[in-house]
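In this supplementary section we document a worked example of the pipeline. Step one takes a protein sequence of length 290 as its only input; no multiple sequence alignment statistics are reported here. Step two produces a three-dimensional model, which step three serialises into structure tokens for compact storage. The input and output of this example are shown verbatim.
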Amino acid sequence: MIPTARPVQPVAGEPSHPVRVAPRDPAARQRWVGLAVAMAVLWPLLVTTEFAPWRMLEPHSLHASVHFLGGFMPPATDAGFLARVGAGAWQTIAIATCGTVLALLLAIPLAMCATATLSVSSLAGRMAPLPFAIRQALRGAMVALRTVPELVWALLLVRVVGLGPTAGVLAIALTYGGMLGKVYAEILESVDSHAARTLLANGSGRLQAFTHGLLPEAAPELTSYTVYRWECAVRSSVVLGFVGAGGLGQEMDNAVKMLAGGEVMTMLIVFVALVAGADWVSASLRRVTQ
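The serialised model returned by step three reads:
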């Protein structure tokens, strides 16, 4: 026996007329138009970049890939090499940490001076011309610092200070100083500014307004972003080693030039463990500060 559909009883307080279901998705046309526009924009870009991943599935490409990957096995495990890798990994962490600390010393004053909330001249309304010009100049300086990648800074600084971790520390400090300063200023301007404005209006200095008015509100976000940037600095410090800025990257660059696949594999494993450890430390610090 075939069951018959029972009519749906109307709910009290709702209209009794049946609800009509649209026969098709009313937003389907917009989605298809958006997809067509995206393909029209992306296709020339893919052609320009010569993006053709299917070539990797050709027989000669597969043979070359298998032969290349086979050169990384087995990983190198001799004691002398592992000692060098450990020293390089420790130097990588030191480069990232020192670079981040120097970036903080550069970013905090820039952010405080570039934050409109901490401007005394803006309490009466529109900011005065001179403080506004100084604020825009500082924001321009932060743009210039973060526009140049840390790899380019390292290439330039290696010529100035020579090979070694000093160039890596300074490169991270300059680029990350601009990044941190810009984000710090945006965070400080997004939190509730009533307390800071009240302190400034009653004669407090900019530092007191920052530490007692803005910092308690913005501390979790500032800490979270700072820890994230330190985690990024750990990864960047490995890349900087390829231009002679020390750390694990410089050891890996030497191994690649010597075609020592086993040593490269060992350093890749250490690098993955290093990034995983940095991620665990940053997650732990975020939990503590929240």
